[in-house]
Fold these 3 entries.
Entry 1:
Amino acid sequence: MSVDMQFALPDTGLQGCLFGGERPAFDATFGGVERRWLDDASWIDYAPNWLGGADGMLPELAAALPWRQREVTMWDKRLPEPRLTYWWDGSDASAPPAPILADIRWALTQHYDRPFDTIGYNLYRDGRDSVAWHGDRERFRHEDPIVVIVSLGSARQFMLRPRGGGKSISYRAGHGDLLVMGGSCQHHWEHCVPKSAHVDGPRLSVMFRHHLAETALSKEFGADSRHRSGVSRPRGSRR
């Protein structure tokens, strides 16, 4: 069950960026991306401020998207999920809500050799919004899925840990940062965005996923790419 929601952006200073700020632009060369191996089969690609002008996009998207608040099971109860979501899959032949997201989607498709055919939007309105430890559903459908996150707005802590528990690692996720989970990350690792008492404003997580919609792009790549393992860890590389 989910409920339609509207979201009014609080006065955090981001509103002015929409009209007077930097024009959105991303690094299509991926030259600033650094890969970190979590284990022999799982990796993270990360590039801070990969999308310039990202914060200026947040007010427009926050106001335009038809947000929904789903119910989730917590403490054996069905409760409202502490964040707002919207899912785009192009099934109605519509373009992504912001033109640059279509360009990013195509650049990611070329760089990672996957047909990124869906975009999920997760809005963390303030520090009370969060998501618990989990792995994305792609692990049930693909051998080594790639999930891409571009974060707009205020930075939040993005944490990963081995599935079932263990020492965690943390990244910053905000202000145009790019974070990519690949290899066996969804199978062997979990991630979360914890609650925080010290957050400057909302954060919008834009997640690009592949092979989740019946689109022309997916058909062009074909079913075989669903099971490609992607990049193997080179000998002597650092974790």
Entry 2:
Amino acid sequence: MKIPFIKESTQEFIKEARKTPNYSLLDFLHGYIYGRWTYLYIGIGKGDHPLAKKYVTLKKRLGIKPKDKPATDSRGMAETYHGKAIPLETAKQMVQINEEINIPDLEQVIPYKRARSIVMKNPEHILALDCPCRVAKENPCTPIDVCLIIGDPFANFVREHHPDRSREITRDEAIEILKAEDERGHVHHAFFKDAMLERFYAICNCCECCCGAINSHKSGNPMLASSGFIAQVDEDLCISCDNCVEY
């Protein structure tokens, strides 16, 4: 039954939420706020939004203190909000999927307690979204429309709530975005989030200077999982320039 005053994409999100095991009302509210006010949410989270300082002040007044935990600690945000680095070829394969997929509990691939499933409905429905991390930054990297939202209900939800910051694209256009970002040296992340129905929903193409997840990870909050690949040095080609050391 359709509810007149609630957007169709929101109703679709609610319908999928009800099918998701252990997905609480709090999870739904978190997911709705994240999806509906993405730019405010991430801008505050990164500290770039004018309200960020007020948010920190409010947390202090409420007695909410940040937790000190090493990057190897698997508690808290590390269990529930994360992305996994993937190589270009894998990213290209993910935007070329042409059938619905339901693969739950990828524990060996996505090493977290929650948000480790790939459930794709209408995978051909792909959006290019203005990157919230780049939008929040005063002088961001360009271009900014490099976040790929893949499949429904996420693509429908984002398109309906952010029509001025998103556009529908073809698989070929998505591949071109991935290739261009790869050539810029940016990292492809498959993003999973507990509040986003505990499943894969986007491929972000992240740069170190703008990405909130990368900078949070570098600060000791383990938000990102490695690709699982190990670099090997070709001694015949290496000139010992040390440019790769920082990476």
Entry 3:
Amino acid sequence: MESFSRFSNQQATIKNQPSSVRGLAIFLLLLLLAACTAERRKTDAELGLTPQQSAGRKVYDAYCDRCHEPYSSRGKQGPSLKGIFRRSFLPLSGLPANDDRVAEIIRFGRSKMPGYGQVLSQQQVEDLLAYLHTL
């Protein structure tokens, strides 16, 4: 009788475990979805980008996105570039927020940012600047 009772208790524990595991999985999924800030990436057409801005977006994706957020005020390793040209001055350096200064930083780097003057052509820098103006 005792072995039947023990077997019955083990069976009840096993039956309860999947539902608690299932409940935990649902809870974690809901928590993940609630914490998720990612949204679908808009196409170039949805953003209304010109061909030059579109080319600049490709440069941004290849070289800048790993450290700089394009559409968020939250930075990654480097500062966010959202609204970079809407400000009078760049956030970390205090330099004027204009094409000349930003192009200089892109080419030669600054602080922790490496320079891309040996990697990007003049046209790619100009395309990138055109895209940055859309952020």
